[in-house]
Structure formats: C-alpha cells, structure tokens
Amino acid sequence: MEFLLTKIKENLNEQMLLLTISNPRKTEEIKKYNIRPVLVKDKLMFQSAAYTKTQVFHKNLKKNELVEELERLLPSYKQVQLQTVSSELTALINKKGKAAIKVKKQNNVVKAQMQTDKSHLLHNRTKKYILPEGTVVPFLKDLGVMTAEGKIVRTKYDKYRQINRFLEFIEDILPHLPQNREITILDFGCGKSYLTFAMYYYLKELKGYDIRIIGLDLKKDVIKNCSRLAVKYGYDKLNFYEGSIEEFEGVTQVDMVVTLHACDTATDYAMYKALRWGASVILSVPCCQHELNKQIAASEFEPITDYGILKERFCALATDGIRAKILEEQGYDTQILEFIDMEHTPKNLLIRAIHRKKQSDKKKEKAAQQVDAFCKQFGFTPTLWKLLQEEGEEGGAHDE
Prior knowledge:
Elements: H1 2-10, E1 16-24, E2 32-40, E3 43-51, E4 56-61, H2 63-73, E5 77-84, E6 87-93, E7 99-105, H3 108-117, H4 138-142, H5 157-173, E8 183-188, H6 194-206, E9 211-217, H7 220-233, E10 238-242, E11 256-263, H8 266-277, E12 281-287, H9 291-295, H10 302-305, H11 308-329, E13 332-338, E14 349-355, H12 361-378, H13 383-391
Helix pairs in contact: 5-6, 8-13, 11-12
C-alpha cells in the first residue's frame, strides 16, 4: 500500500490525466472516485468526483489535501487506476492491503500531444471566443463592452458572450451565402447595434467578405450615433437608417435578414420582407409576443389560459413555433436554437432558417396543414400567416 501511495504521489502533477478509485469493500461506501488535475486561477488543484448510486459530489483539493484523502480512502477500495501522459498504472488491493501493480507505457502520439497542449487540464480554461478578450476591438471599446486595454467590462460580460455566441451562428451559415459577389445583410431593429458592428467586423475585417450591411431602427438618436461610429471606423459599407420594418423599401435583393428583439409583430413583418426578397438566411430572436395572447380561445386549455404567466409563456412559444413552421412552408429548413443562457435573459430563442436548395412540395404542404390545424384549434390568426394568405401565394419565396 505504501508503495502504491508513493507512486500516486509522484504523479500528482500536470502530467496526470485521471486517477480512479473503485470497487469498495463495503456497500455503503462511495461507489467510485474520479480525480483529475485542474487549473484554478493558474494554480494546480485536483478535482475529486465522488459517485453514489444516484449522485455525484465534486470538490477541489490542494495536493497535500488530496494525499491525506488518499491515505484514508485506499484501504477501503479494491481497485486503483492511474493514467498519466506517459503511462497507465493499474493496482488490485487485497484484504491485507497489499497491492498488485501493473504499469503500461502510454501511446507516443498521445504522450506528445498531451505534453504540448495540456488539453487534459479541463477546468477553468479560457473559452476561445471569436472576438478574444485581450485584443482591442474598437467598436466594443466605444460601446462600453471593452476597456482600452482589451479587458471586458465586468458588467458587460453577458453582452460580450452574447456577441460571440451570435458570431458563432453567423459562422455556421457562411456556406449558405453567395461567395462570388457582394452580400447584402439587413438588420431590422438594430438598436445600439452591438451585433450589427460585430457582423461587419467579423465578416469584412476578419473573414474578408465583400458585404454591405444595413441597420434599421425607429430611434433617431440611436441611428445618428451608430452612423457616426461607422464613419469613425471607416466601415463604408455599413449604413444605418431611421424607419419602420413595414415601410422599408431601400433594397431589392437581400441575402440575409437579421431581426433581434423586434417587438411583437415587427418580427412578422421582418420575416415577411425576408421572404419577399428571397433571403437565403433568416436569423431572428423574437421579443414581446403579445399578439396571440389576445387571440387565444380554447376552453380545454383553461388550466393554462386561466393563469396569466402560463398563458403568456404558452402564447410566446406558440408564436415562435408557428413562425418556424411558416418558414418551412415557404421553403426553408428551420431550427429553433438557444441564443444565450436562460439565466441571462428570457429572450433566449433564435429562429434560424436556411433556404432549401432542393424544394419538397410534400414538406411544404405538411407544414401548411400543421399551421392551419394549430391556429384553428386555438383561434389564432398570426400576422405572418395572414400577410402571406392575403398575398395569395402558395409556393416558396424563391422562384424555382
């Protein structure tokens, strides 16, 4: 036992991958321990995960604390396995406390990789963001997200995460945008334009795309400030205009439409415009879905509709589900994704629609039937569906 403990102590460093203690001698003991090296504020610690039948308990230990824990634990278990960058040790411990130990050398490829990148030190690693902290991004500094030294302002960290998460969505849809001509992107309800500037910076400055981005909002002072910043940075193809979504007629072709937190039916008008322009990609984070809340009429759902907060949440989900199905009926592959963590904002769903290259009349017809049946059941007449029906179109947004 002393020899086994000595071998383990020798390997309590960054070269260690995993220490597993299992097969307890008594049934009431913890079933298994998994112990890994972790970095906490650049200091080496060891994370212990203790497994019962139904739960797992975690705690971080300093090296001396872990050694004391091992001295207590090892006599109560029959098996120990220690994996390091260079070797793998297996020990079987008998009732008398004697350990039969076998050591096997680690694969050279694994060894080289681990020694180079230390990827096994999982805890407290800095997440790789598209816009990394420490690199000064002018618009993030001027918008109050980043300091002049490139550090993220503590109270703006959620906004920083949101911007990077949004850019990950942009990165995903790049294969669906034109590659051989100018790309036109329209951002409805752009507000302070954190994400509008992020899109331009990422696509133009970092990726080298030929793009034109238009931001539209009703607030005159916001548009004035965004326009000033665009000129300051030399973003000559980033333009901001004051106006409503319904009345905007400034372009004839748009490749991608973005609508973030456009209130209530403004999202529907933005989607309708996107369909009429034949946009290849639609990204929408809906907000304030009040329309269906006023329309719902389904007595069998009174356990929901009799309670305001439940009624509101149900109608918000119904609104976005209907929108997603309508986009499918219009020839798009549609997903509803989590935008940012639920704990940061309730406005956390993103509708992503990508126009299908191969159209399926059967799929369109099925989506239309689903929308009709659902709306009929609850007495809904959603704006987007109404706009399309009034126009009398049966097919998709693109001419095939």
